[in-house]
């Protein structure tokens, strides 16, 4: 689908806006969209639609990508199973334990950087003791598990530099 036909939209109350922004940008980077294409998707095109202006020409659809490495596909599917349980307020159960084990077992392999990033997200779930007050039907940490699944699905996206993310201008418009 051409990027000019894609508009970012939230799915509140199902998911938080920040979760969806992270997911959308990760997927856009995975398929190698440009910064201008991502900006169009994330709000530029919507502003034009609301103003009654012509749509931006954001180029052609990205080419089909490479299939996921098997370890990432297994991680993605396992995390989706955990997310399904968490969506209904249940404990993530065995699926989460298997995902955590997969992160540790593959940490030194070819997908190690991605698996370590996923593991770091999953470790943060332990710090979430109470449900999100806007989405109390979900188990605590649901948003982190969904983002971890998205990271598994987007392994070509480089890991951000933590120092850059701490910068006060890290999220400033380009």
Would you mind describing this structure in some detail?
The protein is built from 7 helices and no strands. Mean pLDDT is 86; it is low at 170-174. The protein starts with 16 loop residues before the first helix and ends in an 8-residue tail after the last helix. The longest helix is centred in the middle third of the chain and has 18 residues, at 70-87. α1 packs parallel to α6 (142-153). It has 174 residues and is mainly α. It has helices at residues 17-30, 35-51, 70-87, 93-105, 112-125, 142-153, 162-166.
Mean pLDDT: 86
Counting DSSP H or I runs of 4 or more residues, the number of helices is 7
Structural class: mainly alpha
Overall radius of gyration: 17 Å
Listing every helix as H and every strand as E from the N terminus to the C terminus, the arrangement reads: HHHHHHH
Query: Shape, please?
Result: flat
Q: Tell me how many strands there are.
A: 0
Q: Helix coverage percent of residues? A: 40-55%
| DSSP strand content | under 5%
N-to-C terminal Cα separation, in Å?
Answer: 25 Å
The largest β sheet comes out as: none
Low-confidence residue ranges: 170-174
Spell out the key features of this protein:
7 helices, 53% helix, mainly alpha, 174 residues, single chain, disordered C terminus
């Amino acid at each position: 689908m051409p990027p000019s036909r894609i508009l970012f939209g939230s799915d509140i109350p199902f998911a938080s806006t920040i979760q969806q922004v992270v997911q959308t940008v990760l997927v856009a980077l995975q398929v190698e969209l440009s910064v201008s294409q991502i900006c169009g998707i994330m709000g530029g095109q919507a502003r034009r639609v609301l103003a009654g202006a012509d749509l931006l020409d954001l180029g052609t659809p990205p080419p089909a990508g490479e299939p996921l490495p098997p370890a990432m596909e297994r991680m993605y599917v396992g995390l989706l199973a955990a997310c399904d349980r968490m969506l209904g307020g249940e404990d993530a159960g065995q699926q989460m334990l298997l995902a955590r084990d997969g992160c540790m077992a593959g940490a030194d392999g070819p997908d190690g950087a991605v698996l370590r990033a996923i593991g770091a997200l999953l470790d943060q779930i332990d710090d979430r003791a109470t449900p999100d007050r806007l989405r109390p039907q979900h188990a605590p940490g649901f948003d982190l598990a969904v983002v971890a699944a998205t990271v598994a699905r987007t392994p070509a996206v480089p890991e951000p530099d933590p120092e850059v993310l701490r910068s006060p201008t890290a999220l400033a418009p380009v």
